[in-house]
Write a structure and sequence with these properties.
Two copies of one chain form a homodimer. By secondary structure, the first copy, chain A, is an all-alpha fold. The first copy, chain A, contains six helices and two strands, in the order H-H-E-E-H-H-H-H. Chain A binds a DNA duplex through helix 2.
DNA sequence: ATAAACCTTGGAGTTTAATCCAAGGTCAAG
DNA sequence: CTTGACCTTGGATTAAACTCCAAGGTTTAT
């Protein structure tokens, strides 16, 4: 059992944030002490881990509440409802995954292209790297190099 | 060349959002018309695409500005600086990727476990799926099924 | 040449997600 | 039995990221 200060320290967040999540229905302590202190158990801690992970990959607290609602009232929901909700979120997750893989590829190619030395980074740009990785995916036959890009007005 | 309304329609955002990004140094139109209307070219559009993608995977506008600064002053930066920045962001992207893959796995397993029918979803929970996928990764030798989980006081 | 649909600016308002504050109760150590 | 670290509540404040508004200029279509 953790008290609010212990759990918040564990995940490097503020106690206030836990109270905030509670107020907004994301995470309630499974019990209270005689004097009213919040007491969080291991399951609560897991739930918090989930919330923080989901937040880190760009889901809003509302999105997360949707997902967690499966947990909360699972015995009141039909499997079909759950499946629908899950499949919708899965699509979102997979879209994000695709985006991130795209980013990772571009960043890696940028990191490799870049000499890493003290010279001017004239040919180092995320956008250039993204563009060339787009090219790579969309039309890998064309293979020219853009030197004079991004020079506006 | 797009006017603000055209570009915003293209990406399904508000014109105000584009003005906001401009004010905060994320995206400026490459030119203006005689009467002062903003005119965005293809490169501007690509840059916007990048911003929106990065946002969608959980980067803040500040993070994104950092990344884009590589583009803006690349001739004033040493390759070593660029490489440092890129490698830092790459680490963040890869951490997010790992999280998302974890989510995707859990959601898939949940979707598969779930009968999808009109019955009560007693055994369908994200947290249960996450937990069992944790189990799967951490100790895949143990292979039992958790029926009585998530039953908190 | 005038309405409708678009654009300009500056500034105010909203939403989301915390974070802080004040007044007071709790608990372990000395 | 009091001191200090911790907890309670409700309400105010902050920061980020928009989103809206008002007053006026511009374009295009009739």
């Amino acid at each position: 059992m953790y008290r609010i200060g212990e759990l918040s320290a564990l995940y490097d967040i503020k106690a206030d944030t836990l109270r905030f999540y509670e107020k907004h229905g994301l995470l309630s302590p499974s019990s209270r002490s005689d004097s009213g202190y919040r007491l969080y158990n291991q399951a609560d801690s897991e739930r918090l881990k989930f919330i923080l992970r989901a937040k880190a990959v760009g889901f809003s607290l509302n999105d997360i509440a949707d997902l967690l609602s499966i947990e909360v009232d699972k015995s009141n929901r039909a499997c079909a409802d759950v499946k629908g909700l899950v499949d919708t979120k899965l699509e979102q997750v997979e879209a994000k995954l695709a985006e991130l893989q795209h980013f990772a590829t571009s960043l890696k190619s940028l990191s490799n292209t870049c000499c890493g030395g003290p010279d001017s980074a004239e040919h180092c740009s995320i956008l250039e790297a993204l563009e060339s990785s787009d090219k790579h995916i969309i039309a890998k036959k064309e293979h020219h190099h853009f030197a004079n890009l991004g020079h506006k007005d």
